[in-house]
Amino acid sequence: MTPAHSKDKPDLGPKLRELPHKPGVYLMRDRLRRVIYVGKARDLKKRVSGYFIASRRRNADPKTLALLDSVWDLEWHTVRSEPEALLLEGKLIKEFRPKYNVSFRDDKRFLMVKVDMAEEWPRFRLARFKRDDNARYFGPYVHAGALRQTLHFMRKKFGILTFGRGAPTERELKSSAFQVLSRITAFSPDQYRERVEQACEFLAGQSRELVEELEAEMRKAAEKLDFERAVELRNMIENLRKTTKPMRRFTRHSLPSAIDPQADVLALKDALGLAEMPRVMECFDISNISTTHIVASMVRFRDGVPDRANYRRYRIRTVEGQNDFASMAEVIRRRYSRILLEARDTARNNARETNVETDGEGIDYSPEFSQESLAEAVERAAPAVRLPDLVIVDGGKGQLSSACKELQRLGLHELPIIGLAKEFEEIHRPGRPLPLRLPEDSGALRLLQRIRDEAHRFANGYHQLLMKRRIAESILDDCPGVSANRKQALLTRFGSVARLRRAPLEEVAATPGIGPRLAAQIVEYLRQRE
Q1: Is residue 388 part of a domain?
Q2: CA 139 to CA 259: how far, in whole Å?
Q3: CB atoms < 10 A from the CB of 360, how many?
Q4: Which of 96, 125, 159 is at the close of a domain?
Q5: What would the DSSP string read from start to end of 290-338?
Q6: How far is CA 242 from the centre of its chain?
Q7: DSSP label at 371?
Q8: Is the pLDDT of residue 367 over 50?
Q9: Residues forming a β-bridge with 174
Q10: Are 428 and 401 contacting, i.e. CB atoms less than 8 angstroms apart?
Q11: Which CATH number covers residue 51?
């Protein structure tokens, strides 16, 4: 096949003839080998070949025509079913962020079922994120409607609790939707857990016997001409099969990558005219969706890939109202003043061990090192404390100027820094009146966008977490007998309302200022508002 860098577009005919009649996902690449579109298909050959039929191309919309004109290569991955194709498509779109895809570019995840076996009465709940909380997770599930119907069936069949928290409530016991639960009162938590284990085995795929029972019941209903019941059972069987069918998990590490981090880092060095490769980059973003919680994030990339162990998040302390410039100044000051303090402390400890003469800041400024920059001195004095090779702030001239002033106050005049303004993807640099605009297909720009988007995601995630905590904590505001000081004492002791709900009565009563009587009122108050 013609090399990707050739000026002549390669003939895709041979690849189109190789396409299988199987479900899967296809990737379209441009002349630079970048993935520009990801799609799924029940039949790869029919779906992909259809793009290149002359009659269909003549009636295609401008966006599709632009896509097809840019396609220089095809790639596909077969899977076992259409739902698997949908899962893989979503993973690949999140991985590659193709310019012609719109769906899946948000952070929406497929539903999973979560069961926390640490609870006295484990419940089956829906979740979109798998957390490291020792709970059991099943899924993800492509068919949300089928999943909800399956949970409804499981509640009736196994007598398990869904949604909510804690032991069965009076409402659940009396509701017609929870008829099976009326028998739970006769069981101990241990006996109930046996039912939960059976339901977990069912979700894990051990459902053949149960489905066969339902099929036999469906045939009997049809023989008795009870077609309404037969259709109901048929739909139930389809939902169960969709939910309990084994599904492969596609992880980030199992996916091919169209991104070349090393090449993008080199391209960024050349585009910005940096003296050294920006191997370590730190990017800052401010999230001030509301004035209640203004937060910031710092993400670090090493050699073009996320270094998540060194991500940091901040709550803005000194700024009143929404002020991005002042907020950016605060987080830059806190981040790099801390690095300098850590370097000073490390250097002082080293000096005590080796009897090296140091100045009051803990860094050796003897004549042989007098020509080095503060950044070099920091790294030499404390190699484990590393300043980045490039600082990136999310914003334009205002954010960049605020950040530069703080770096200058800290003596970090030579630390490379840029601002990336989102509207036109303009790169602002200190002392340069005009912004730099890189081509859309530039690897350097795509790298900056990935870093900026990751900082934005991390900041928004922290903001949402604080808002959820605030909403949860506000329930105590209306609890009789709980003053602001008592509320603070409870949250300090237990950390969150969720932990307070699970705490024994004795522990609640042991909180300063609470006592047994008020503790009983608090526990009952929270139980009624689950």
Answers
A1: yes
A2: 28
A3: 7
A4: 96
A5: SSS--EEEEEEEETTEE-GGG-EEEE--S--SS-HHHHHHHHHHHHHHH
A6: 26
A7: T
A8: no
A9: none
A10: no
A11: 3.40.1440.10
| C-alpha distance from residue 458 to each of 300, 332, 371, 389, 417 (Å) | 11, 17, 38, 21, 20
pLDDT score at 270: 94
Angle at 380 between CA 377 and CA 382, to 5 degrees: 105
Q: How far apart are the first and last CA of the chain?
A: 63
pLDDT at 63: 79
Residue 379 has a CB neighbour count (10 Å cut-off) of: 16
What CATH number did the domain enclosing 410 receive? 3.30.420.340
CA distance 377 to 471: 47
At 501, which CATH number?
1.10.150.20
How many C-beta atoms surround the C-beta of residue 156 within 10 A? Answer: 13
Helix ranges, 436-512 (H) = 443-473, 484-494, 497-502, 505-509
- Digit-coded pLDDT (tens) for 17-39: 888 888 889 999 888 888 889 99
Distance separating alpha carbons of residues 381 and 368, to the nearest angstrom: 14
User: Quick one: pLDDT at residue 254?
Assistant: 45
For residue 140, what pLDDT is reported?
Answer: 74
Is residue 117 helix, strand or coil?
coil
pTM for the predicted model, two decimal places: 0.46
* Residue 303 and residue 432 in one domain: yes
Q: How far apart are CA 361 and CA 267, in angstroms?
A: 37
State the pLDDT at residue 289: 57
Give me the half-sphere count of Cα atoms (radius 13 Å) on the Cβ side of residue 85. 20
- Residue 198's domain comprises 111-244
324/440 same-domain check: yes
**Residues 270 and 236 placed together within one structural domain of the fold:** no
Give the total number of structural domains in the chain.
4
- Residue 246 CB burial class (10 angstroms; 0-12, 13-18, ≥19): exposed
Q: Which of 466, 429, 427, 465 is nearest to 449 (CA)?
A: 427
* Residue in this structure with the two tokens 């410039």, named with its chain if needed: 325
Return the structure tokens found at 154.
């499981």
Please report which residue ranges of 10-165 form alpha helices under DSSP H: 13-18, 44-51, 54-58, 62-70, 82-96, 144-158
Same domain, 333 and 398: yes
Cα-Cα-Cα-Cα dihedral sign, residues 519, 525, 529, 530: positive
132 vs 360: CA distance, rounded Å: 44
